[in-house]
């Protein structure tokens, strides 16, 4: 869906960006944010351009990470070229780089440092409303689904519409906000540096990674730092490594739904998992994803049918966290 305020942010600020979206949409201001509003199978770059072209305003979530993001620079350049007003929200006392000053030097800043959310959220809503006007929040529909049952060879196909109408959307927004505010996950994640880089390191996390799995040179999700894809005729398994401290729970929740199940590895709960169906015309509409809580790694299965998804899940072998990266 296009047409909402475009929330521009660096990958490391995804958690705060999600909170900005929650605040604005709870106040009735529609938003567009990646990856939530990029449809399965859609080109990432094309979706970004389309979202910007339809946006009445851009909300820039600014921090030290923003200066290092070429993607943010390109998005701001597009916004300025199209005369889209920019509302910068500064998270920390960092000055923009010379490139960014060129695009946002004349914008009125909203600083959040040193003040509580109750002080900066109302001015943010007012500033964005001035640009986009007050409009109903975007709505999406969600239906509950059960976990795949490996003993069921032909689970019935179900269409999953990943967002709720009206009240359901508000529940989703509030749930994501609570997760982001209470999780405190970045301090708990073991640094990725404790696991060797490359195929050997990934295989220590996921022993099912074989030599036939290919390294993905340009991951579809920009935040991922290392991805291996194991492809079959009717499904693909992707093993991914993320930057230290990246809020993977918020990422997956943003488009898979707010109610993950516990992910159990060797009898121990190690993280969260989701199961959902994308649009029926998607090439691989049957999806599953799981992420460690204390390790920056995740795994995803995309399949052509519910049955092939079960097969893909059964192929995944994950290591217990205490065994990862150890001799």
Give a structural overview.
- This protein has 327 residues and is α/β, with parallel strands linked by helices.
- The protein folds into two domains: 128 residues, Rossmann fold, CATH 3.40.50.10140; 157 residues, no CATH class.
- Helix content is 33%, strand content 19%.
- The chain has ten helices and twelve strands.
- Strands 6-7-8-12-11-10-9 form a seven-stranded antiparallel β-sheet, with helices on both faces. A five-stranded parallel β-sheet has the order 2-1-3-4-5, with helices on both faces.
- The longest helix has 17 residues.
- About 17% of the residues have low confidence.
SSE arrangement:
Elements: E1 5-9, H1 14-26, E2 31-32, H2 44-54, E3 58-62, H3 64-67, H4 70-81, E4 86-90, H5 98-104, E5 110-111, H6 117-132, H7 167-183, H8 198-205, E6 214-215, E7 226-231, E8 235-241, H9 248-256, E9 261-265, E10 268-277, E11 286-292, E12 297-303, H10 306-315
Short summary:
The chain is an alpha/beta fold and 327 residues long. It has helices at 14-26, 44-54, 64-67, 70-81, 98-104, 117-132, 167-183, 198-205, 248-256, 306-315; strands at 5-9, 31-32, 58-62, 86-90, 110-111, 214-215, 226-231, 235-241, 261-265, 268-277, 286-292, 297-303.
Compute the number of strand runs: 12
- Give unreliable regions as ranges: 134-148, 152-190
- Specify the overall morphology: elongated
Q: Helices and strands, in N-to-C order?
A: EHEHEHHEHEHHHEEEHEEEEH
The amount of beta strand, in percent, is 15-25%
The count of domains is 2
Q: Report the major sheet.
A: 7 strands, antiparallel
DSSP summary: helix tally: 10
Largest sheet, spatial ordering of strands: 6-7-8-12-11-10-9
Distance between the termini: 48 Å
Computed over alpha carbons, the radius of gyration is 20 Å
Mean pLDDT: 77
Structural class: alpha/beta
Q: What percent of the residues sit in helical stretches (DSSP H or I)? A: 25-40%
